[in-house]
Design a protein that fits this description.
Shape: globular
CATH architecture of the largest domain: 4-Layer Sandwich
Distance between the termini: 43 Å
Number of helices: 8
CATH topology of the largest domain: Purple Acid Phosphatase, chain A, domain 2
Strand order of the largest sheet: 4-3-2-1-11-12
Number of strands: 15
């Protein structure tokens, strides 16, 4: 049996931005739904963080999610197994109140898992593990020890895996707790990484600057072989353009329409030609443009920021190189959360 695994869809992201939802929709219309139809897939496992905000839902975002995702899955006769993630649990110490359970009750094809549960897909028993918190940690760890399932799927925070391209998580549970499983699949971290047994599958699309050029998409899981195959999303939203006295007359701007673009200036000998280059980009109807000529961090003369780095990369590296007797990984995690919350306010 083939099953689609998708995670961290974050419907309503960036304050329900139309730009982002239009970008998300290209993935669903061009990649996700056609693949389900082509492969004859009738089961989807959603491994958490389906909606972006744990505190509430924009009605427009909910309408978008229902019209463009849930209604279509229901019409296709697709069964959806939805695991509660940290963004869909209202409280931080319990999964009892969660967005997916409250918002999706009208769909008889959607089952929500707020507690660890053994579920059979095809002929394969799988342990579904929702976000682990103070209330369910003991129950979850006991079931992990007791279960005979060879496969687990969930929304886990484990040590030693990449949160994004810049940060490796140094907190959370140890992956050895899951050593009894043949395969463990998880959401939560948006970039792909694995240790051969535990696989973080990453989210379907770019959402922040630190996602640029990082492979996105979803996966097809075979319950017979307990293996998975990537289905990549070719659509991008964030672009870096490196300007080196680039000829604006021959530069093709068509792919940047409705994109978020950062021009990184490496060489600029003629200001007027550079201005014409920028004007041409604006003429391509880009969604957002930022020009970066240099970075300067005043606090340390020895710290050099590279022109290709984004804001979060600079902050993470600055923390890493700082001579302080603090838990740097924890500071980096806090900065990551603050940065993403700040992006929501833009």
């Amino acid at each position: 049996m083939k099953v689609a695994i998708i995670t961290d869809q974050h419907f309503g992201a960036r304050k329900n931005s139309k730009l982002f939802h239009d970008y998300f929709l290209r993935f669903y219309n061009d990649i996700f739904f056609p693949t389900l139809e082509k492969e004859g897939i009738t089961t989807v496992v959603d491994m958490g963080d389906t909606f972006d905000s744990r505190k509430g839902i924009d009605f427009s975002a909910l309408s978008w999610a229902k019209n463009n995702y849930y209604d279509r899955l229901q019409e296709m006769g697709v069964k959806v197994h939805t695991i509660v993630g940290n963004h869909t649990a209202y409280y931080k110490n319990t999964n009892e109140v969660n967005a997916v359970d409250l918002l999706l009750r009208e769909y008889d094809n959607v089952t929500v898992y707020s507690k660890p549960t053994e579920v059979v897909l095809g002929k394969l028993p799988i342990l579904f593990i929702p976000w682990i918190n103070q209330e369910n940690e003991e129950e979850t760890l006991k079931l992990i020890q007791k279960t005979s399932c060879k496969c687990a799927m969930g929304h886990l925070e484990l040590q030693g895996f990449r949160v994004n391209k810049q940060i490796v998580m140094e907190h959370g549970l140890e992956s050895k707790l899951f050593g009894k499983f043949t395969r463990v699949y998880s959401g939560h971290y948006h970039t792909r990484s694995d240790n051969g047994t535990v696989f973080y599958l990453g989210n379907p699309y770019e959402m922040f600057w630190n996602d640029v050029n990082d492979t996105r998409g979803f996966h097809i899981f075979d319950t017979n072989t307990i293996t998975h195959t990537s289905v990549n999303n070719p659509h991008r939203l964030f672009y870096n353009i490196y300007y080196e006295d680039t000829n604006y007359q021959t530069f093709d701007t068509r792919e940047y329409e409705n994109k978020i673009v950062r021009v990184i200036v490496r060489k600029k000998s003629d200001t007027k030609k550079f201005e014409k280059f920028i004007d041409k980009l604006y003429g391509a109807n880009i969604a957002e443009l930022k020009v970066v000529e240099n970075f300067v961090i005043q606090e340390s003369e020895e710290f050099e920021a590279f022109e290709s780095e984004d804001t979060l990369s600079i902050l993470n590296r600055y923390i890493e190189e700082a001579e302080v007797s603090l838990d740097k990984s924890m500071i980096q995690k806090m900065i990551q959360e603050i940065y993403q919350e700040a992006c929501e306010l833009v």
